[in-house]
Amino acid sequence: MPHLPTCRNRWTLGVAALCAAVALGLPAPAAAQAVPAGASAGGPVCIDPPADPAVGLPVRLLALRYECLLLRDGQALWVGRAGRPGLPTVLLVHGLGQNAHRDWAETVDSLVAASFHVVTVDLPGFGASPPPALAYAFHTLSDQLAELLGHLAPGQRVHVVGHSLGGALSLHFTHRHAALVERLVLVDAAGILLKPVYAQAVASVRRWQTGIEPVDRLVNFVGARVNSWSSLLLLGRDDRFDFGPWLQRNPEVRRALLGGRTQVDAALSLVEHDFSAAIRETRTPTTVLWGREDGIAPLRTGQVLAARLPQARLEIIEGVGHTPMLERAVTFNRLLLHALQGPPPATRALQAPTPPGPSQGHAVCRNEDGAVFRGHYDSLTLQGCGNVRIESARIGQLVVERSAVQISDSRIAHPEVALVARDSEIQATNVRLRGRVAIRSDNSFFDLAGTSLRAQGAGVELVGAPSRLFLSVSDWQGSDFSGDAHFIWPRPAR
Length: 494
Known about the structure:
Blueprint: H1 10-18, E1 33-35, E2 65-70, E3 76-82, E4 89-93, H2 108-113, E5 117-122, H3 138-152, E6 158-163, H4 165-176, E7 181-187, H5 195-203, H6 213-228, H7 231-234, H8 244-248, H9 251-258, H10 262-272, H11 276-281, E8 286-291, H12 299-308, E9 312-317, H13 324-327, H14 329-341, E10 362-366, E11 372-377, E12 379-383, E13 388-395, E14 398-401, E15 404-413, E16 417-422, E17 425-435, E18 437-442, E19 445-449, E20 452-455, E21 460-462, E22 468-477, E23 482-489
Parallel strand pairs: 4-5, 4-6, 6-7, 7-8, 8-9, 10-12, 11-13, 12-14, 13-15, 14-16, 15-17, 16-18, 17-19, 17-20, 18-21, 19-22, 20-22
Antiparallel strand pairs: 1-2, 2-3, 3-5, 22-23
Helix pairs in contact: 1-5, 1-6, 3-4
């Protein structure tokens, strides 16, 4: 039976073992101040990186006015501004890669022309900003962005736009500092899904081709470095063991393994982080922009974000990958301005589901490949069927035997058992399962993202041969568990 690679898979190993989440806060001496690039202010300073001819972007963007901002904790940040202060402010937060704020090269002028005050930033260890004193931590980064905005846009509620790693950080920042944010735009946000699930998506791309050379070099470096480590060194014999907590307690080991590469530390910290609470509780109007062909942050991630954030909508940009602001700048800028200036998205309570229509009765799929089911069914049984898709469906009971199926935007509810699986593989995205037992599984694999389990008894009943469930940004209410579900079930041994 096909299954998601466990920690014996070398990429999954690298993500699971090396993501140490981190550092407990930094000292806070004096207030933030601006210092010239390269000047000494008793701490780290900003240094312009050399231009990369492979990328073709200038070190500085002509539209921006630059300064090096020294924060209270001693961190220096390279920031750029365009437009008139006092206008509505847009903070642009970049993703991985040494381009840093230059990823927004095609975005700044469009925002200025639309009467925005634009602020860009090189995150610590990226572009011209020096690396952090300690390991990457989202709460520290969020507080640094809040201090930056207090200096450059005092008293304002700002719009925050984040891409990839910066999208995940922007979500965390908005959750932590909701009073500072007017609207949030998430662009191909990386991470978010459970780390082995995200690692599987990453591992499916043998060689990165994002169109941004520093990103390609970085991610390919991580893959090569991880693939070179011995599984005996990192995992021992038990594929359920996760080295992350141990590395959290031993930052010097993490630094030795990563060779002091800040951006790798940032990437691995990203996939170690659980964003479930931020997604559930962030009520800021949010637009999710996604390239349909993204291989780094699969579209499925954007679909989960849009479905589970309390007030969000998803806009898909066709024919582009992970960097829509560079690959399809005109389309991206139009959608971005609509996200910032147009009507806000409806709250989840007002987003009516598509009616499933009249029941199609009891449907059966036997030994077929590629069958598609939509609409309303009293029950649906799959026997020996591969590559099945169930989309926007309402089903009384789903029985899956010796089959592989992808389920999206659907509801399955039954008085007894909602979903019965034997010798099968199930991927579910934005699915609700209701019953006395939500799932009964025998020798099956589940990849559940944005999925809700509601059961009067056990949420998951495991019978027969072992099964494994990977739950990302999901929720579970049953006699066996209640709360956010962002973990592997059965729970791995510690």
